[in-house]
Model the fold of this input.
Amino acid sequence: MLIRIDYQDARPIYEQITAGFEKLILSGVLEPDEQLPSVRGLAVELSTNPNTVQKAYAALERNGFIYTVKGRGNFVSGNVSLINERKRSMREQIEAILKEADELGIDRKELLEGLGGKGKND
Amino acid sequence: MLIRIDYQDARPIYEQITAGFEKLILSGVLEPDEQLPSVRGLAVELSTNPNTVQKAYAALERNGFIYTVKGRGNFVSGNVSLINERKRSMREQIEAILKEADELGIDRKELLEGLGGKGKND
DNA sequence: TGAACTGTACTATTTGTGTTAGTACAGTTA
DNA sequence: TAACTGTACTAACACAAATAGTACAGTTCA
Done:
């Protein structure tokens, strides 16, 4: 069970599937050219519909996480820039929060206190 | 025009209204006991429906941002703890992003580089 | 008192998204 | 050929967001 659906999660199923595979691919659990479960197979496994899985896979391909070979299956792409794009996206998210903090008169330093590292300084 | 609706924004209208007033209240633009636009008045102003505004106001009251007096209107509450709750919520959001970074093997320090303050250190 | 405001509470309808279901077609593998 | 793979449709259902309309209750003020 590589992927697990959480029905408490507000996100739609197809989005949980894409997010799940994105994490598995970016963290290296799934290696380049490794095959993903088939659309129909994963649908059975997750007790969901092939169309829902298909929608998730289409998004993964659109964003460069996987490539598709018709008749063979879906495979992890060896796209190295993905991790950098994710890093940039995370910085954007944090920057948006800090911008809101600015507008509310909350000090950035105070907000980030103790979030820096794990046992180094701070 | 205190509030502006962005139809590019994926968030529903009622949520944009609550978010807008929350920011105005937390930043002090709207002061305690100051009156908000009437449900019907704001609906006309935003070219939306009174029910939609009502839904937004109900949420604001539920979360302690405003109080309602039937027949008179809605007013900003003088709840001082709201800003601290917001601060806590922001830290949670950032912490969630950093936790994901950990799982992807991205260094927290590197991610937070240069986001600290405005012209002090970092 | 009565008119004109305020909020509140419904019901009905429309629209869009997510999901399910079913069918059909095309390419690959053994 | 049989059994896999992905892809492309259409139809139907559920749900949330939003709109529309009506009705009722409390406040303000002339």
